[in-house]
Amino acid sequence: MDQSRVLIASHYNATRFVYDTSCYDMVAGFAECDDVDVLAPSTPKSSGQIRVDRVKRRLKSLTGLGTCYRIEPVEVKQDYELFVYIGTGLPDLVDIARIRHWRRRAKRAVCVVLKAYGGELKQFEDNLAILNSFDIVYSGTWTSIAFFQSLVRPPVRYLAYGIPALEMMPASINRERTIDVYAMGRRLPALHDQMLREMRSGSVNYVFDSFDNSVPFIKDFAGHCSSRAQFLKQTKFFANFGVRSFQSRELELAGDDDLITYRCYEGAAAGTVMFGSAPTSPDYALLFDWEDAIIPAPASGCDYLDFLHGLEAQTDRMNAIRRRNVSNALLKHDLAYRYEAILKDLGVATHEKLEERKQGLLHAADRVGRPTQLGETTVATSMVGNRAPRIA
Question: By C-alpha distance, which of 283, 290, 280 is closest to 383?
Fold first, then answer.
């Protein structure tokens, strides 16, 4: 059997938080594009290691010294052309140290941090030293790139979120959607209260997460992602209010950053009609540059049922939105494009699996209807100038 040329590692099996779904998706999406071994350790299993880690956590809580690891120690036992570590956020970087010999076993190495809020970078500065062993560090938070770069030696580049667009696209743009409104994760209180009343009266089919979004222990990431995709494919209107729309724990973490949330990519790929508030971060205008990507809606003082009935009555407009969203997701936001950007940065040849994936995306977009056929312009994939990071 031929040896895989890429090793992709992540922490998600040790934490299993709901918000690690985007991390799992990126690992799985990249693995579809190359000959890849996936290393996703769980929590320590041996009683001895569990006792040692328990003492370390106690020491950390009492003195602030030491490190709290979450994954079990593992060893990389063969050589790879490329090592990729993917973390959801800055706290996940500490676990890289438990992957033994990863640097000497890899010819090239990159780290992807999906969320690197500026306000957290100083807080977790001690965790960042491990990044100096990588060739390139990628961040999904546009506005904190410069500050991030000031704290580490390798180049820090912007890498937008991506989604498995082929798997998330609906079987047909014209299929019936049985969920009127879907609210995922963080909920706008005014909208939720109204929709809950209407749901109880039988006026709308309203679906929402009924658990705290920080609750861990997703039993099965693959099953969870498939279930979430099916909900979205059945959804007419997808609530998408940005991080800065209302008070939440996410807002406290984000500080001044207003990143594009993962649900923007998911909602577009599944062909929902998104409503709410678009992020103010400059990358949004480049990555979601088509008409009605998110239809503006007030964060309070609105009769949302009346608002959505008004939109639903505009049948041609709604159908056009769904078609544009799916097509643009296929052409711009699949994880194949994000992986390809990393390979180009490193000068690594693309694999035939990546080329096949891209051809599949083009064929799917042709079936849906290309954006240029719909009067849209092509999204810019880079920005000119030294102050703005490149979009990969």
Answer: 283
Domain ranges within the chain, ordered by starting residue: 6-158, 165-332
d(CA 203, CA 200): 8
Phi, psi angles (nearest 5°) of residue 80: -135, 155
Pairing between strand 156-158 and 136-139?
A: parallel
> CA 193 to CA 171: how far, in whole Å?
32
Domain 165-332: top CATH class: alpha beta
In CATH, the number for domain 6-158 is: 3.40.50
Rounded to whole angstroms, what are the CA distances from 112 to 40, 42, 207, 361? 15, 20, 32, 24
Contact 175, 232 (CB under 8 A): no
pLDDT tens profile 231-272: 999 999 999 987 666 656 665 665 677 789 899 999 999 999
In this structure, the dihedral spanned by the alpha carbons of residues 142, 146, 147 and 153, taken in order and rounded to 10 degrees, is 120
pLDDT over 70 percentage in the chain: 84
SS3 231: helix
Angle at which helix 352-368 crosses helix 335-346, to 10 degrees, equals 140
Interacting residues of 242 by C-beta distance below 8 A, sequence separation 6+: 258, 261, 276, 277, 278, 279, 280
Task: Report the interhelical angle of 221-233 vs 262-269 (nearest 10°).
Answer: 60
- Evaluate if residue 334 carries a pLDDT over 50: yes
pLDDT at 275 over 90: yes
**How do residues 150-198 score in pLDDT, each as one tens digit?**
999 999 999 999 999 999 999 999 889 999 999 988 788 899 999 999 9
Evaluate whether 6-158 and 165-332 have a shared fold. yes
Tokens of 123: 């807080």
Q: Is 323 in contact with 368 (CB distance < 8 Å)?
A: yes
> Which residues does 115 contact at the CB level (< 8 Å), separation at least 6?
88, 89, 90, 140, 141, 259
